[in-house]
Design goal:
Rossmann fold; 2 domains; 12 helices; alpha/beta
């Protein structure tokens, strides 16, 4: 079988490890493997590259994606999806593995309506918001990148006795914020999944000050209902009677060498995905739940809500001070 692999949407550390696994396992199974550059738009632009073992050497440790990525407005149209299906057929591609987030899974679901080839997704997003996997490729690295930055900001907070609001990525998901909040010893983490009580957070900050706490920091998911870190800073400053500083971590969370956990997860999911595809499986995302690789129908990956575990919220509350 001729199999293609692409990355789509936002890049996440570990995508290269997943690509490498798909290519090398595919070659071991006597497949002809093709890389598609630039996501789904790469299909429309016919940006195909024949892959061999050497094309994926020395990429395991690198962030980003060797196939590049992007978002395609053309592919989102019915005409664009049909065109992609036609091109894949003309290129004699029998299966496609796409690594990305919910937009990627939606794209694959749309494509399979017009194409007879097999399609499987792999969860590559730092937001960790896809149902059907405990952790997505890139999440662990993003948390560690953010945690490293928070630890450095703490030094300034201690030196000047300041309150910092540190914004992390997560427009619709608070997984990064909550994991960083617990792991860094933050006073609070505000996330989209739960109501944010700024008065309660202010009372906690004031109490900490009274007990002699020099540095205070709150982790803010960018999609919280009270606003981003800058907006929340203005509200919180009035409540506590002192200026809150803001630090937006931004894209540094998505960069850098993937952690051991992300390399291992990506390699395992990539290998599982190509084997499932060659066995005739289609219309699913490969993931890992309770350390077992599983398959989840595309629609479930975005239609079913991945919940924040209650114990994490309770632990965040109990440990703050």
């Amino acid at each position: 079988m001729r199999v293609a692999v692409l990355t789509s949407g936002g890049d996440s550390p570990g995508m290269n490890a997943c690509i490498r696994a798909v290519v090398r396992i595919g070659l071991n199974r006597t497949c002809d493997v093709v890389g598609i550059h630039g996501g789904f738009q790469g299909i429309l632009d016919r940006k195909f590259q024949k892959m061999d073992s050497r094309t994926v050497s020395r990429i395991l440790h690198r962030g980003g994606t060797c196939l590049t990525t992007g978002r395609s407005e053309e592919f989102k149209t019915i005409e664009g999806t049909k065109k992609a299906a036609r091109i894949l057929t003309e290129e004699k591609i029998g299966g496609l593995i796409a690594i990305g987030g919910d937009g990627t899974m939606r794209g694959l679901a749309a494509l399979q309506k017009y194409w007879d080839g097999k399609v499987i997704g792999a969860p590559g997003t730092i937001d960790n918001d896809l149902f059907g996997t405990d952790f997505s490729i890139g999440f662990d690295t993003a948390v560690n990148n953010a945690l490293s930055a928070v630890d450095k900001i703490r030094d300034t907070g201690e030196a000047f006795s300041r309150v910092f609001l540190i914004e992390v990525m997560g427009r619709h998901s608070g997984f990064i914020a909550l994991h960083v909040g617990i792991s860094s010893g933050a006073t609070a983490a505000v996330i989209p999944e739960t109501p944010t009580d700024l008065e309660a957070i202010a009372a906690r900050i004031i109490k900490g000050r009274e007990l002699g706490k020099r540095s205070v920091f709150v982790i803010v998911a960018e999609g919280d209902e009270e606003g981003d870190a800058t907006e929340i800073s203005g509200k919180l400053s009035k409540l506590i009677g002192e200026k809150c500083r803001v630090s937006v971590l931004g894209y540094i969370q998505r960069g850098g060498n993937p952690t051991h956990s992300d390399r291992l997860l990506a390699s395992r999911i990539g290998a599982f995905a190509i084997d499932c595809l060659l066995a005739g499986t289609t219309g699913v995302m490969a993931g890992e739940v309770n350390r077992k690789v599983i398959l989840t129908p595309f629609e479930d990956t975005w239609a079913k809500k991945k919940e924040i575990e209650p114990w994490m919220l309770e632990l965040m509350e109990d440990l703050s001070g």
